[in-house]
């Protein structure tokens, strides 16, 4: 690994290992061992772990190794419902304030997911999905809202990825994303809210279902 953006590269690898289940919830992440395995020093490893902690994927512990986060069903559901509220409000504001270029960018992301869906691996597909929702929040032109949205989006990365991966959602997701884009283009607040509400209700229900099943088996 080169020194340029080394903590980001390390965080990217560990993030994928967490999302793919190679590092299950509760697993200790030992800085020294992981640094040796990757051939890096402990300083960039420590920075990478802090990034993952900011995303809610890792829990830092004083004088002990950090562990992969294992939120309760209630904690994840509460966060997911806050995220849903933020996204609905973002879409309302985007109808009022998004530029034509911003809506065109959201549509481009949607089209990229549609065109590449079957060729992408699960994480790359998931990251495009997150990019789509992030673009709507940014198009709200409300910096506080966009910042809070990103914090909750990061916090729910793992459970959102795993719950989406366990269900066959391709046709519904692609259809709903396309409809959201068309309604944004029309500046149709009521229509966007209705479509997004349906889309995000599936997301919340999937998270609760997946975590309940996962923690039942622990």
Quick one: biggest sheet? 2 strands, antiparallel
With helices defined by DSSP (H or I, 4 residues minimum), what is the helix count?
A: 10
Radius of gyration over alpha carbons?
Answer: 18 Å
Overall geometric form: globular
Strand content: under 5%
Instruction: Determine the structural class based on helices, strands and strand pairing.
Output: mainly alpha
CATH class of the largest domain: Mainly Alpha
Q: What is the number of strand segments?
A: 2
Topology:
Blueprint: H1 6-19, H2 31-38, H3 42-54, E1 58-61, E2 64-68, H4 73-97, H5 100-116, H6 122-138, H7 143-155, H8 157-165, H9 170-185, H10 189-216
Antiparallel strand pairs: 1-2
Helix pairs in contact: 1-3, 2-3, 4-6, 4-7, 4-10, 5-6, 5-9, 6-7, 8-10, 9-10
Describe the structure.
- With 218 residues, this protein is mainly alpha-helical.
- The protein folds into two domains: 6-68, Arc Repressor Mutant, subunit A (Orthogonal Bundle); 73-216, GntR ligand-binding domain-like (Four Helix Bundle (Hemerythrin (Met), subunit A), Up-down Bundle), CATH 1.20.120.530.
- It has helices spanning 6-19, 31-38, 42-54, 73-97, 100-116, 122-138, 143-155, 157-165, 170-185, 189-216, and strands spanning 58-61, 64-68.
- It has a two-stranded antiparallel sheet with strand order 1-2.
- A hairpin with a 2-residue loop joins strand 1 and strand 2.
List keywords for this structure.
218 residues; mainly alpha; Arc Repressor Mutant, subunit A; Four Helix Bundle (Hemerythrin (Met), subunit A); 2 domains; two-stranded antiparallel ribbon; 10 helices; 2 strands; 73% helix; globular
